[in-house]
Design brief:
- This protein is mostly helical.
- It has one domain (3-180).
- 72% of the residues lie in helices and 4% in strands.
- It has helices at 3-44, 51-64, 68-73, 81-84, 89-124, 138-141, 143-164, 177-180, and strands spanning 127-130, 133-136.
- A two-stranded antiparallel ribbon has the order 1-2.
- The longest helix has 42 residues, at 3-44.
- It is elongated, with a radius of gyration of 20 Å.
- The two termini are 24 Å apart.
């Protein structure tokens, strides 16, 4: 991969790591919030108003979407490597590039329609009721296109890596390459 792309990927990796940190913090806060609700129910016999909705609409998207590009970039998502690993390197590379293009198209569609939904949510002032109050939902809808946009960037780096490298790879750095596509 060209040097400028390696430098770009280092910067992008830092952004992905920040997303991972955000996801981890939100997962921890979600856990604390749920534990506080359970303790409140058992000790005070009262639940935190809107607990379920706040977890569903705020904590879950914040725990998932910022970190999804980091998880994808590690190469741990399931792939069809059991079949592909038995084929020649040329065929493996062709299949990997084809799958990456299919993923690129699918994730681009999710990005586009998620962005359209987010924009219409802003226009409508989308909110949800929880505990007798209305909480805005529309800012958190944008986590979907942001997360999938980061996946698209990761896939573009992967396509470039596979087009410029002699070996097929499902990670840009190649760190888990042997686990994903075993050597014959």
């Amino acid at each position: 991969m060209p040097a400028i792309l390696k430098k770009s990927y280092v910067i992008y990796s830092r952004i992905k790591f920040i997303g991972l940190i955000i996801s981890g913090i939100c997962l921890f806060l979600m856990m604390v919030f749920i534990v506080a609700d359970v303790l409140s129910r058992n000790i005070l016999s009262k639940s935190i108003p809107g607990n379920y909705e706040i977890v569903r609409y705020y904590f879950m998207p914040l725990a998932l979407f910022p970190g999804v590009a980091y998880a994808y970039g590690t190469g741990i998502f399931p792939r069809i490597t059991m079949i592909v690993s038995k084929l020649s390197k040329k065929i493996q590379k062709l299949i990997v590039i084809l799958l990456l293009f299919v993923e690129l198209v699918l994730f681009s569609l999710v990005f586009y329609f998620g962005l359209q939904y987010g924009l219409s949510g802003v226009e409508e002032g989308l909110a949800f009721p929880a505990g007798g109050k209305m909480y805005p939902l529309y800012p958190f809808i944008f986590l979907v296109p942001i997360g999938f946009g980061m996946l698209i960037i990761e896939i573009i780096f992967l396509i470039i890596r596979n087009l410029t490298s002699p070996e097929p790879s499902l990670t840009v750095t190649g760190e888990v390459e042997e686990e994903v596509i075993p050597k014959q």
